[in-house]
């Protein structure tokens, strides 16, 4: 059985990490920039990573308008990216976990267009972009992996557009839970038992739903036996129901329930 997502160690609350970051020692390097690289090339990537940076819960890794200098590979913990409009309303752009790369939205403009905020005590590896640019010209495999990473980010943004334009509330939430389960499975964790690190408000901000709608849809999923949810601890009992719901197969049934 795959392990449940571990609790972040208490030592993560320190903001400075004296230990040098090592891609070769990271258990999530298969999901990050080192994927597919030869051992010698991974060692060269290790050399440009400036430091590990620890980010406390609710602390911003970077904010809208900050100058762009580095990319950040999530080593452990979870982040949300968000934008705030003039009325103070938040739009959640995504949720990020170990192995994900943060900061790519700033490459073109040279400054960040969103906030990246830790959902729990977390740690990132800071990768100076100027040094990464030099290295990708020397290592073709690294350039290919960087392009794959950017492609995944584009696909993620397209998925969000699909959420907001074509799917009903129950479909959005079911697909969101399935997506989370799949991402945890990729990292070697349980695809059926995990903790929702984000609040219902954050989930609503990501899916374009109100908090009330998110709570209502979660209650329906509990009632029909698809999930068990205690506080933020979620267990998927019937994946087939979630899959049917995400494709619209059960939408009419839930609509009249």
TrEMBL record:
- Whichever gene encodes this chain, its name is fnr
Q: Which GO terms describe its cellular component?
A: cytosol
Signal sequence coordinates: none
The lineage's top-level taxon is: Bacteria
Q: Which InterPro entries match?
A: cNMP-bd_dom, cNMP-bd_dom_sf, Env_Response_Regulators, HTH_CRP, RmlC-like_jellyroll, Tscrpt_reg_HTH_Crp-type_CS, WH-like_DNA-bd_sf, WH_DNA-bd_sf
A single Gene Ontology molecular function, please? DNA binding
Report the SUPFAM superfamilies cross-referenced here: cAMP-binding domain-like (SSF51206), Winged helix' DNA-binding domain (SSF46785)
Lineage start: Bacteria, Pseudomonadati, Pseudomonadota, Betaproteobacteria, Burkholderiales
Protein name, as recorded: Fumarate/nitrate reduction transcriptional regulator Fnr
Against SMART domains, the record matches this protein to:
cNMP, HTH_CRP
- Which UniProt keyword terms apply here? DNA-binding, Transcription, Transcription regulation
Q: Where is the Cyclic nucleotide-binding domain?
A: 33-153
**Domain HTH crp-type: from-to ranges:** 167-240
């Amino acid at each position: 059985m795959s392990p449940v997502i571990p609790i972040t160690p208490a030592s993560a609350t320190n903001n400075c990490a004296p230990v040098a970051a090592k891609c070769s020692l990271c258990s999530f390097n298969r999901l990050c920039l080192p994927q597919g690289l030869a051992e010698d090339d991974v060692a060269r990537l290790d050399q440009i990573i400036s430091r590990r940076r620890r980010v406390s819960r609710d602390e911003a890794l970077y904010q809208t308008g900050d100058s762009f200098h580095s990319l950040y590979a999530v080593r452990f913990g979870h982040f949300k990216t968000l934008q705030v409009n003039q009325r103070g309303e938040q739009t959640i752009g995504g949720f990020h976990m170990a192995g994900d790369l943060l900061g790519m939205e700033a490459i073109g403009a040279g400054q960040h267009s969103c906030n990246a905020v830790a959902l729990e005590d977390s740690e990132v590896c800071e990768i100076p972009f100027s040094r990464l640019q030099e290295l990708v010209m020397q290592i073709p495999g690294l350039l290919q992996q960087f392009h794959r990473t950017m492609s995944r980010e584009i696909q993620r943004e397209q998925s969000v557009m699909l959420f907001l334009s074509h799917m009903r509330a129950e479909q959005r939430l079911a697909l969101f839970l399935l997506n989370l389960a799949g991402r945890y499975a990729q990292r070697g964790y349980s695809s059926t038992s995990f903790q929702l690190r984000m609040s219902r408000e954050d989930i609503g901000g990501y899916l374009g739903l109100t908090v009330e709608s998110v709570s209502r849809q979660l209650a329906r999923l509990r009632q029909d036996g698809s999930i068990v949810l205690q506080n933020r601890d979620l267990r998927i009992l019937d994946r087939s129901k979630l899959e049917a719901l995400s494709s619209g197969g059960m939408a009419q049934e839930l609509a009249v329930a």
